[in-house]
């Protein structure tokens, strides 16, 4: 498998509306906002060249992002790499002995299929893989 680009960097925030202005000041614009019930978050994406910033705001106290904010405060939550074939990536990582948080790809923002590696595997960095078909 090849992670061919950084798809986005996820940043945990208390409030997306409060966080957007600093990125707007950097010349980024919010292009897409949606609630992802499976993760109990609202996400907002701000393209930055080939990559994006993803702001994550929890929608519930028991959201993983709410727990992250409580434990570590706002900040970088995960790094997401784009892959062409997520099923292949999952079996490849398993074969190499890496732990994944979800055993099967789940639906993330934008309807994309995603998986998270266990943070222990990423040496403290939560790594997300997102399936991204090549542009046609
Ligand atoms: Co993400």
Brief write-up:
This protein has 136 residues and is an alpha+beta fold. It is 21% helix and 36% strand.
Give an overview of the whole structure.
The chain is an alpha+beta fold and 136 residues long. It has helices at residues 16-25, 64-72, 86-95, and strands at residues 5-12, 32-36, 41-48, 51-58, 75-83, 106-107, 113-116, 127-131. Helix content is 21%, strand content 36%. The relative contact order is 0.21. An eight-stranded mixed β-sheet has the order 2-3-4-1-5-8-7-6. It has a single domain (3-131), classed as Roll (2,3-Dihydroxybiphenyl 1,2-Dioxygenase, domain 1). The protein has three helices and eight strands, in the order E-H-E-E-E-H-E-H-E-E-E. A hairpin with a 5-residue loop joins strand 6 (106-107) and strand 7 (113-116). The model has no long low-confidence stretch (mean pLDDT 93). The radius of gyration is 15 Å and the shape is globular. It starts with a strand and ends in a 5-residue tail after the last strand.
């Amino acid at each position: 498998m090849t992670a061919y680009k950084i798809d986005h960097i996820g940043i945990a925030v208390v409030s997306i509306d409060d966080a957007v202005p600093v990125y707007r000041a950097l010349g980024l614009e919010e292009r897409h906002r949606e609630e992802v019930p499976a993760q109990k978050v609202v996400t907002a994406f701000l393209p930055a060249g080939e990559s994006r910033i993803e702001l994550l705001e929890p929608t519930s106290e028991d959201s993983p992002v709410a727990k992250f904010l409580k434990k570590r405060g706002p900040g970088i939550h995960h790094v997401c790499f784009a892959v062409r074939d997520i099923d292949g990536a999952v079996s490849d990582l398993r074969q190499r002995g890496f732990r994944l948080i979800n055993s099967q790809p789940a639906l993330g923002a934008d309807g994309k299929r995603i998986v998270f590696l266990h943070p222990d595997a990423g040496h403290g960095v939560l790594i997300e893989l997102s399936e991204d078909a090549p542009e046609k």
